[in-house]
């Protein structure tokens, strides 16, 4: 497994991965197979996207957006993620997310994002995503009513978070 920033030459593979995974993603996140060019344009200090890639085949395992990045005294970002078939449910997404977290918590002067806290906001009945948050060591912080506009309505979310003090980096796992 490896993680890297998305590139213009990922557009076709990304589109195919999202299309074949539409059923599995669609209940929870918008299906946007043609969204990679716009996502590439939006990359900046407030948004960093990582693709999780199967090194053996180059296949796209999943995508993780680190969004709403605020530095200063907060150093916080919110994670949003999707896994893609045929890799979904194999444990590879979880392995890739550990690498994303390493990158988020690595200091900026060492090439990371230099964050202190990460959030995952999940709809209460999204069991697979809640399992992912817990597997990654996030703690349940609370409940945020009507937090995000998804699928035609404002959806309640459970809020999970992890701060660097509770993070076990790669060399200690
Ligand atoms: C949420 C989501 C990203 C989770 O991804 P995933 O594909 O389930 O991730 P993984 O394959 O790493 O999941 C682990 C599963 O593999 C199994 N597994 C096998 N080997 C494993 C290993 N070495 N390590 C971890 N898990 C392993 C686990 O038991 C687990 O199965 P279970 O959930 O039935 O217990 C995915 O379900 C998804 O894209 N959902 C739709 C979009 C979405 O909800 N996004 C999040 C919105 S908040």
From TrEMBL:
Name this protein carries in UniProt: N-acetyltransferase domain-containing protein
Stored Gene3D superfamilies: 3.40.630.30
One Pfam entry name: Acetyltransf_3
Residues of the N-acetyltransferase domain: 1-165
Domain of life: Bacteria
Organism: Kitasatospora kazusensis
